[in-house]
Specification:
alpha/beta, eight-stranded parallel beta barrel, two-stranded antiparallel sheet, 17 helices
């Protein structure tokens, strides 16, 4: 098993152009005394939309590490893969997020459920977990219900893990994450404990797990929900992980993963407090926020670059239904608040930047524009070399935007 560093931070580089600027944020964080492992992640869906291969993400990351002399570890995440999509990620990646969303809720074999219950009598009754005030009162019925909902998913995770292991020649020199956030409601502490027991039974050396939290984690914008409730759930989950490590022999490096974690500014302080108090690790995934900074950089540059940014918006607005459909569950766009293409075409550089930059103190910030452009990267992909050439021609200003966004808005509030 490849030991996962304590703090890992997922960054997306959709057009394989931003790795140097992204890495600079981690270099600056290291200079501030915080060691964070950059983890470049790009999903199969994003590769399909852009027409890229996982090796391109690896190549960009390797070059940035070499050019900038990064002395620490770095990872490449095969983000949200399953048995049907994992093959192209095997060689370039050393972090695998096992996506078992389709199997959550699929009824488990009654015999498997019964065997699980028989193996884990300690889960039934009053369970004391250090860090949670009251003992967990777990009924046999709850164990049975949770096993029925998640056991199939843990079995699929095991099948994916075994496939990766075999494909890598039997070497498990990679980090394994299991995503359990594709459910209708958050897991309560008892459910998390049952899920972790099931994962341990499968022999998966899981080092990060992504549970379902309360609230909305919409793409590219702030958290929407009860921050106090999130804080309680996050702290309870930390306690459950610590308990499960001891009870079931899970890796000591096991930590929580927060998906769609970029721009969730209102929950960064509770997360920081929790990991500081407990000494726990953290994995947080960001992706689209970096692509948005590329567009912001183009708009900042002005001239032809600004015109390109306006064209991207106009085409995204025209194709908004098709662009939004794959992301319908993780965006909330009020279409009445989207300016027309004609209006945006008349914007100055400052107006465009103000609308798109995630600054809630700016009255011109428009979260609807931001979400639309977040899912609109397909438009840039369809522009081909026009877009890529614009990134190269405006590299300095774009890089400043990318580095500043990661360091000042994300890394510092979470870790410094």
């Amino acid at each position: 098993m490849k030991t996962c560093p304590k703090f890992t931070f997922g960054v997306g580089d959709r057009f394989a152009h931003g790795a140097h600027a992204q890495l600079q944020a981690f270099i600056s964080a290291k200079e501030l005394g915080v060691d964070i492992c950059p983890t470049w992640n790009k999903s199969n869906r994003e590769h399909e939309i852009i027409g890229s291969e996982p090796q391109s993400t690896r190549d960009a990351a390797d070059k940035a590490v070499t050019d900038l002399g990064w002395p620490g570890e770095y990872l490449l995440d095969a983000d949200h893969i399953n048995l049907g999509t994992v093959d192209r990620f095997i060689a370039p990646c050393n972090f695998f997020t096992l996506d078992v969303a389709d199997d959550i809720g699929e009824a488990a074999d009654p015999a498997d459920i019964e065997n699980f219950i028989h193996k884990h009598p300690e889960l039934i009754g009053s369970v004391t977990v250090k860090g949670i005030k009251a003992p967990l009162e777990i009924s046999r019925e709850l164990v049975e219900q949770t096993a029925n909902q998640f056991l199939k998913a843990t079995q699929k995770a095991k099948a994916i893990y075994d496939y990766i292991l075999a494909a890598k020649g039997g070497s498990d020199d990679f980090v394994t994450e299991v995503s359990m956030d594709e459910t209708d409601k958050p897991q309560v502490p008892a459910e998390m404990l049952i899920i972790l027991a099931a994962i341990a039974d499968q022999g998966i050396p899981i080092q990060t797990i992504a549970p379902k939290f309360t609230g909305r984690f919409n793409k590219g914008v702030d958290y929407v929900g009860d921050v106090g409730q999130f804080e309680q759930e996050f702290n309870d989950d930390l306690a459950i992980l610590s308990h499960a490590i001891k009870a079931y022999g899970l890796p000591e490096t096991l930590k929580l993963s927060v998906h769609s974690g970029s721009d969730k500014f209102s929950i960064y302080e509770p997360i920081k407090k929790a990991i500081t108090r407990t000494g726990a690790g953290l994995h947080i995934k960001t992706a689209g926020t970096n692509w948005l900074e590329e567009v912001i950089g183009l708009a900042t540059a002005g001239g032809d670059a600004l015109e390109l940014a306006k064209e991207i918006y106009a085409k995204a607005l025209d194709k908004k239904e098709a662009l939004c459909e794959p992301y319908a569950t993780v965006i909330d766009i009020d279409q009445s608040q989207l300016p027309s293409a004609d209006e945006v075409n008349g914007w100055t550089s400052e107006q465009y930047v103000s609308a798109l930059t995630h600054d809630q103190g700016n009255p011109n910030y428009n979260a609807n524009v931001r979400q639309l452009l977040h899912v609109g990267f397909k438009i840039a992909a369809q522009m081909g070399d026009r877009y890529l050439d614009a990134l190269k021609e405006n590299d300095e200003v774009i890089s400043e935007c990318v580095t500043h966004n990661l360091l000042e808005r994300h890394i510092k509030p979470l870790f410094v």
